[in-house]
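User: Here's a protein and a ligand (3-methyl-2-oxobutanoic acid). What would the complex look like?
Assistant: Let me lay out the input and then the predicted complex.
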Amino acid sequence: MSTNKATTVKLLDMKREKRNIVMLTAYDYPTARVAEEGGVDMILVGDSLGMVVLGYDSTLPVTVDDMIHHTKAVTRGAKETMIVTDLPFLSYHISTPEAVRNAGRLIQEGFADAVKLEGGREVIEQVRAIVRAGIPVVGHLGLQPQMVNQLGGYKVQGKDFAGAQRILEDAKLLEEAGCFALVLECVPTKLAQLISESLSIPTIGIGAGDGCDGQVLVIHDMLGITDRYLPKFAKKYAELNVAMTDSVRAYAGEVRDGVFPGPEHGFKMSDEVLQKVKEENGLA
Ligand code: KIV
């Protein structure tokens, strides 16, 4: 293992030293290479995979096998970066032993370093059991996309007293249960800051403002790879979708016009060999 690879202990140090943690999603070998070369601290193989890569409307259809398949590619592409993989919908809800088994598969078959799961008090038993098995766990509170049908949409969470109180309590429970980091998604900036100050483990925000100990974005959003709806909290650092579509259009045009391939893209053979093939086949 590289000495630069983040560990759970290094991340705690980063929080104590007030160094912001950078996390980014990746789903395959090339995005993992880009994330690692770009110098992120952690890669998340998020179940957002379902929406940005597999074309589903939500994360719900994503399976453990999907996550393993993509995590394997990511771990091959980013050997020096901590890789966290999402436990997908229903893979940790049915029973605690099943949650441990699925978390273990992401580690043993996908080669992830840690797993992430959504929820608070209702998944505490599963978190404890996974941690007991020696698997580092990241929690996820606020907007939980796997609960989209129950929440009635992708909405900011914790704006009223009861909601804010529940998220703060759940954050403390997850820390006590052994999570080494906590993703806060779509919660008010001031609540995220309060939670971050109340915990000794780092918080990693997405749509949770600048008071978190780190930030995470979906790589397809920040690179502008898709033309899907961009959430308010995401920032686009490039418009790769435009560059990619223009490039495909240019390629299609050149093939149709006979411009590509040029002589420089082909391979040579000797005239003697060609002549012999022609003669052999009655084509001379
Ligand atoms: O699946 C994902 O990409 C996530 C991030 C939005 C935190 O869970």
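Summary: The chain has twelve helices and eight strands.
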